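DATA CLASS: polypeptide
GOAL: derive structure tokens

***
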Amino acid sequence: MNDELSPEDELRLNVLFNTELKAVRIDESSMTLWALTPQGEASVPLKPNERSDRYLKRVRELLSGHALGSPGGYPVHLTRWTRQSQAGLSAQHLAQLLLIAEEEAVVAVVHSPALTDELARYAWWCMPTIENARLMLMRDVVRQGSMGRTLAEFLVEHLAFLHEDDTGILDTVAVMLHSGVLTDAERLAIWKRGSSRNSYYVAFLELQPDDLPNPRAARADHAQAPRLAGNPYALMLEKALSGKGQTFLAAAATILDRPENQEVVNHTLNALAQWCAPLRQADEAMRKLAREDLLKAASRFETDCAALDALAASDADSVRPIFLKTTAIGSLMRRKIQPVVAPLLDAIAVLRRQS
């Protein structure tokens, strides 16, 4: 076994080390080392003098020795350590991790609370993946910086590549909405994807329940709902019968009618519970008095109040006993949760009826 790099590669790498390196990556398919410098990209075609995997290991050891002073390389096998133990590292140390051409080291940088907008740009150059884009866009310093739009545009463009990964869709849309960097057109385009894959709706219900794209018309009797200050039923009726409320309820029904996995169910039920907060936060005695006052003012809304009660009584805990006993997804999962979901769909249907 040869313990040295080819003379040509060793010379080129030593020349490279005399430049101001920002990040390094290796394209193993073409055996090319790429470096990012203030002047742009530089490439070093590698000329192995032994088996490629062994040669690349020695290249990375050389990089690690230069950047970290540790020729043993980065402990890529310690994935949990990599992703959880970077809290104490400074931005300077994180920058060094981007110089050793190890993907797991890039992931460590992406996970670090010390990540900066500049480091995010270099990490993105090293490893532009959906997962890294999601993680970095969760950082305030990144989404408010120059990389915010770059990462959001990438995620919008690559949503289609998630195909049937409903949890991935849910997480990706949630990060994009939370970032606040999407344009109205992008939000609408993502929302419209829900017509073919309802998991696209879930994050909207969780994060922007009162500002959903493409709102529906209010229920015909919306104006007749009593306005009673401090009354949780009056507040919920006003919300449910409005155009925004009808849009929320329609999307919730679409999801609950055919959820694909347990994460989608849990998030949707919690979104419903959060939407029903005025009723859930009122104690039983207060709710009883509030309901009596509202029905005295407008008895025609009695079935609507009962429907609101049904929605307010459910959250992810409602299906927990079922999910603790099964890992089912798809149609089998839907059959198992029907006793919980069917009453909710009935309640939503009541609130969406047109008088």
About this structure: The chain has a mean pLDDT of 92. Residues 330-352 form the longest helix (23 residues). The longest strand covers residues 32-37. The chain is about 60% helix and 5% strand.
